[in-house]
Amino acid sequence: MVFKNIAVSGRIAVGSSSLAKSLSLRLKWKLRDASQIFRDVTAQMGFNLETDIDNAIGNRNDQIDREVDKKTIESLSGNNRIVVTSKLAGFLSRDIDGVFRILVSCQTEERISRYSKDRSYSLDLAKQLLENREKMDQEKWERLYGRQDFFDPKIFHLIIDSGRLNVEEEIDLVLRHLKLTQNLC
Prior knowledge:
Elements (H helix, E strand, L loop, with lengths): L4 E6 L5 H12 L2 E4 H11 L8 H6 L3 H16 L4 E4 L3 H4 L6 E7 L2 H12 L3 H23 L12 E4 L5 H15 L4
Helix pairs in contact: 1-8, 2-4, 6-7
């Protein structure tokens, strides 16, 4: 199969955004980050995310999520040579031909530590906020898409444990995998 786009997914603080950014630079493909899509959509709807992003995420309505997911699907459906990163990019693109789907994962303790460092939170606060956000996300996704495993390994072409590899090693792994499937690099 020839892949024209790449979807990078993962839970909070696994490093999926870092991988997607570095991969887009290496391939010289465009990058589309769901957080930017979210900011664009909420700005168009008149929301101000400069206050408290965690509150804004938790209190968003389903219309925003539907629009963000629609734009994510549109990005991955084109012949764009684009890397899209979002928690649901793999799930949303599962039926789109030509999308190479990557799931980035790591141990929960590592994710909490990363979240704590990124936001300058205590480990206890980071754990609480991360668990709350993921619970809200899961409830919202189930409301929008039904009860499913949104990170089912069967959806993805490649699963990367970011706790064992640095970003350069992850990129090398992705590129080796892509070389096996097409003459990309």
